[in-house]
Amino acid sequence: MSRRAVVIGAGLAGMLAAAALSAAGADEVIVLDRDELPEGPEHRKGLPQGRHAHLLMAGGLDAMEDLLPAARLRKRLLAAGAHEIPLSSGMLALTPDGWLRRWRREGPSMLTCTRALLDWVVREAVLEQTTVQVRRAAVVGLTGSADRVRGVRVAAPGGDTDLDADLVVDASGRGTRVVSWLDGLGLSGVRERAVDSGLVNASRIYRVPEGAERFPLTVVQPDPFVSRPARSAMVMPVEGGRWLVSCGGSRGGEPPADPEGFLRYALDLPDPIVGRLISGAEPLTDVHLSRSTSNVRRYLEKLPRWPEGFVVLGDALATFNPAYGHGMSVAAFGARVLDRELARSGGLGAPGLARRVLRGAARAADPAWAMAVGQDVLYPDVRGGRPTVADRVVTAYTRRMMKAATGSYAAASVIWDVTSLRTPPTRMFRPGAVLAAVAGSPLPPSVEPPLTAGERAVLRALDRTGA
Q: Are the C-beta atoms of 404 and 411 separated by less than 8 Å?
């Protein structure tokens, strides 16, 4: 008998899930998406954060390469123009406690490119390496019962039609309707939590000025420890000799959409370096705003009953404030859970498979959720929660570690390991990490960005502000 899997959503989570299903021996894997997918690395409507900065952490890339070992994704992305940024030396980062020093030592790295390029490279790799089919269709519901999902209901001009499947994966992202779909099967009572700092992202693309091609990724981080809205900015190299520049501000500190206001916003941050850089660069696009940034967790794994044949992954399960750069990696972790459970269980129809995948994907999302929510609840006027006593204790310890990291290689390496998602947050509490936090920085705080002489010359040449 033919075994069919249907995936809802052709974004990163959906295509990686499709790769896992194909590798597990599904005879037919169909990916459904309501968008007309572009034939190249172009923005599409179904990615609300697609025009803003995305960081692919080392842990997420590891998971993607596990799922598509023959595709050599890292090599493909770099060949397409992505940049590999060593966390230890390739980044200028102003934290609330000062500039992080740059260390000429080995450490994890991240890839930077536009979200459109990343999605396109992954989608092309999946379609090359598998027999996955992608179709344009809008899913309006699930078929089956509270015990087993049998397929999906698809909108059609002459009336909705049903598409049967042995396994359905909801990877439809932030806009998922999974709660109402489950309710239609008689499964209600899903607990949800949303933590919304009101973050607004404003992004614009610039041409990299001549001579600035090797200027490091530059970020001014928000400060959650003052009673003011979060405000931040980043200059990130992307493909095509361009900089993607994103400013972000939480409720009450939102960046504007007009070009003059955008530049002024960057210059008014605790350090004007981002504004100084872009003041002498040629803009290639308008300023694009996005307000779809809240953290949302659907605790589907807590339901007392869960239907066979239905899995939820990616943003449909847990959605993160994109400022932390973890959403894509968590989507890859969930797809890897699906891949491993399929291999362990022996196929799509194994009893209990869907529930095991759901629980594993939820566990994979929990560390990123804790990091994002633990910071967002500190901002004024946040909606969805206030910091608990436990939150404040963890925050105080984390801040001590960050202060130490401004001048301690041992503390900085702990931060890199955790933020790269290659190690769990418990890495922060190992004896060596605790010792580094307690010892603090052996060097005084740096009040100036740690630039080389050549980088200082580039910044001076670009600066049109007189700052």
A: yes
